Amino acid sequence: MGQKSWHRNTLLVHAGTPRLEPIQPTALPIFPSTTYQSQSAEKLDQLMAGEIPGFSYARHGNPNVQALVEAVKELEEAKTGIATSSGMAAIDAALYATHVQPGDAVLISQDVYGASLNLVGTIWAEAGVRAIAADFTDLTRFEQLLKEYKPRSVLMETLSNPLLKVLDLPRITELVHTNEAQLIVDNTFTTPLIMQPLVFGADIVVHSGTKYFGGHGDAMGGIVVARQEYHDRLLQYLKLRGAVLGPFEAWLIHRGLRTLGVRFERQCQNAAQIAESLRRSQSFPRVFYPLLRDHPTYSTAKRLLPSALGGAVVTLDLGGSKETVFRFLNHLQLVASATTVGDIYTLCLYPVVASHRNQTSEERANMGITDSMVRVSVGLEDPQDIVADLIQAAKCAHEHQDDSVVMQQD
Length: 410
Known about the structure:
Number of domains: 2
Strand order of the largest sheet: 1-7-6-5-4-2-3
Number of strands: 12
Structural class: alpha/beta
Helix content: 40-55%
Mean pLDDT: 93
Largest sheet: 7 strands, mixed
Low-confidence stretches: 405-410
Order of helices and strands: HHHEHEHEHEHEHEEHHHEHEHEEHEH
CATH architecture of the largest domain: 3-Layer(aba) Sandwich
Number of helices: 15
Strand content: 5-15%
Shape: globular
Distance between the termini: 77 Å
């Protein structure tokens, strides 16, 4: 039975594991070397020219990093790829790979991670690139923007952060290519278990390996996978920018990838159960989860996402002010207040002070992000315990708010 016929969880366990002679360890050793001896000067010349596979210098490649990249390529059905030192470096590499130049425009979904907006709007803008952020749920307006700005590249997320919108990827891909642009898709929140953007025709896919791939909060890294035509440009980025992933981090992320199937499926199941329980509890004015019927992109989610896999993030609007949210966070007992997603632990982030800190209040309002909104990355704890903790913290936050109002009136 060949690897192409393996089912998904089998592929997750075995993908990217090279054969080592004369022994075959079940866990790939860690290779911390910065350089590698060549069999001959001629071989080294061929290696440096990219004519033969192998390793010469850590900035150009490493066995652990290559194993991780090969695994993600298989999962995303990609032809080429690189690993970077962080998810932000992966976004940067993807933009570079699309040949974005001064005078070009990059069209960005307004719902992407705040730092991604900042990257294009500052560093790339300082190099003469125009950044245009827009609502990609309005496909008529989206098509108008493509015609108006003629962007070199378009950047979106499969599941937006933090409002969890599911965009119409097949239609967006069609419109992007019709208008001779290139599509970069951040697939971090859905992973290849839910969606494979390259299969829909996207050009480049990026992941923050720090999140669900690693899964244990102990390694930072990014992955870029793409069609073959981006191979040389991606490798050039690593060699010149030097934003390489270390072998230890690559080993940890690859180890985490092997259990992604069982971890992420359970986290998605937990998130769906938690979202429904919190909605019924009426402890929060609004509960955002892609598979809840009142979510703005529910119909798109039902069409594009697998049954019962709506991601492992739930976003909550407490109502009230920034002080209300602070009280809520300070009263959490099980759920940790921390600035990431994808860990085995349930974590809660406040976008106003973390992921979207650098957006103005007006920009956040245009995105639909309120000052009383929090993002919950659901872990592997029992869903009932998570629900109980979130409800008690919300109750404490609002009780103190009511007390403050009474004191002011007195």
